[in-house]
Amino acid sequence: MAGNKRTAKRVGFDQAVESVAISADGTWTIKGRVEDISATGAKFYAFGEINARMRSEEFFLVMTPDGKVKRRSKLIWEKNNRIGIGFIASTNG
Predict the structure, then answer these.
(1) Cβ contact 81:51 at 8 Å
(2) Domain 11-87 sits in which CATH superfamily?
(3) What are the phi and psi torsion angles at 66 (to 5°)?
(4) 55 in helix, strand or coil?
(5) Which runs of consecutive H residues, i.e. helices, occur in the chain?
(6) 21 and 29 in contact (C-beta within 8 Å)?
(7) 5-62, pLDDT tens digit by residue?
C-alpha cells in the first residue's frame, strides 16, 4: 500500500472487536471497534463523533468488556470516523 508508514505488521479480524477509548481521567469515552491491530497501534472506527480532547490527550483503548486488555494510546491520524492509534510504551522497569 503506497504511503503506509506502519512499522509493525497489522493483524486484521474477521469481525471487528468492540472496544472503547476512554480518557485517562474518565471524563470522556468513545465507543467503537478495533479493525486491525499491531504491537505498536491499531485502526479504530468510532461509532460517534470524535472528542476534540482525544486529538491532544493520551487515552486508554479498552479492548475487552472486563477492561483487563487495554493500552495507553494517542491519536496519530484521523479520517472521518476512522482513527489511527499509536500505543505508548510503558516505562515500567
Answers:
(1) no
(2) predicted glycosyltransferase like domains (2.40.10.220)
(3) -85, -5
(4) helix
(5) none
(6) yes
(7) 555 566 555 666 799 999 999 999 999 999 988 889 999 999 998 889 999 999 999 9
Higher pLDDT among residues 63 and 4, named by residue: 63
Whole-model pTM: value is 0.79
Phi, psi dihedrals of residue 55, rounded to the nearest 5°: -75, -20
H/E stretch holding 51: none
Name, in order, each residue with C-beta under 8 angstroms of 74's C-beta and a sequence gap of 6 or more.
Answer: 58, 59, 85, 86, 88
Contact present, 74 and 85 (Cβ < 8 Å)? yes
Element (H, E) at 60: strand 59-62
Number of Cβ atoms within 10 Å of the Cβ of 84: 16
Beta bridge partners of 72: 60
Cell of 51: 472528542
Q: Which grid cell is 57?
A: 490527550
pLDDT digits (tens, 9 = 90+) for 62-87: 988 888 889 999 999 999 999 999 99
